[in-house]
Specification:
CATH class: Alpha Beta
Number of domains: 1
Number of helices: 9
Strand content: 5-15%
Structural class: alpha/beta
Helix content: 40-55%
CATH topology: Rossmann fold
Number of strands: 5
CATH superfamily: 5'-nuclease
Length: 161
């Protein structure tokens, strides 16, 4: 078996993932997200967030903000480096993501720059979207980076409908 498959996959959780831990209005997504944070699932992966996730959490109402921080406290936080910022700007400049989605672009760029295996997101409009994933990876290629997978939590836990 190749070395790649012997190590845990490194997954970047964008803000939509911990947000759905506290989303009773979407019970199926909440249930799947809670499973993702279960010890048995977490032991199979290395989770990461970034300063962008922390910044977005800081904008939540006080009680939710504290609950979100508590749930991600043991997850390593990656920085938004100059290289990641330039890559995020390239996604916007090339039209892959609209200017209003700068933070989404930063999530993907940080995961790419840090050589993670995938971005995990509930954002189907801007991220978990085949057309956008192909375009993101085209930009990654043009800028000398590897391809990045963008998947939903459902794919991580192997949830079947």
């Amino acid at each position: 078996m190749p070395e790649f498959f012997k190590r845990p996959f490194k997954l970047y959780l964008d803000t939509s993932v911990p947000n759905h831990l506290f989303a009773p209005d979407t019970p199926e997504k909440q249930r799947i997200t809670q499973s993702l944070f279960d010890h048995q699932i977490r032991s199979q992966y290395e989770f990461y967030v970034s300063v962008v996730v922390i910044r977005e959490i800081e904008r939540a109402l006080l009680q939710k903000r504290e609950e979100l921080k508590e749930r991600i406290i043991n997850i390593p936080v990656l920085e938004l480096t100059k290289d990641a910022d330039l890559l995020a700007e390239a996604y916007i400049r090339s039209g892959v993501l609209p200017p209003s989605s700068l933070e989404d672009a930063q999530h993907v760029a940080i995961a790419t720059i840090n050589n993670l295996d995938a971005v995990v997101s509930w954002n189907y409009k801007d991220l978990v979207n085949l057309r956008r994933i192909k375009l993101i990876n085209l930009v990654n290629e043009e800028m000398g980076y590897k391809h990045i997978e963008i998947i939903s939590p459902r794919e991580v836990i192997g949830y079947e409908i």
